[in-house]
Sequence to fold (127 residues):
Amino acid sequence: MTFMPDHFTVWMEIPVTNLDQAISFYNKVFKTELRLVTDMGPNPFAMFPVKEDASGVAGHLYPGKPAPRGTGPTVHLLCPDTLEETMERFAESGGTIISDPIAIPTGRFAYGEDPDGNSIGLFIFNS
Fold:
């Protein structure tokens, strides 16, 4: 039997060298408010918010050592508005846009690197 759950991805973690700066970057780019958690483990981390009644996948930023640029996995995050507006904020906030928008059947996305060099996909579903 083949394992085929509703959601194969259950969590994501993005390592950053400066947690406060990374929180500011992701808050501005994605128009959100990451929640700083200081009482769960040896290090503080910042959680990406989801609606309380949602079964969506989230994750967090944590103090860590990012993979060298161009070598780590890519985490795709949902744009809060248009792909182009999110790309603009991403670049203005210190990230680097790596690709032009790419269309796929379910939407569009672009690749970027956050200030720590983490590979981030900026994704928007078709309306």
Remarks:
- The beta strands are 12-16, 35-37, 45-47, 59-63, 74-78, 96-97, 102-104, 107-113, 119-125.
- The chain has two helices and nine strands.
- The chain has a mean pLDDT of 94.
- Helices lie at 19-30, 83-92.
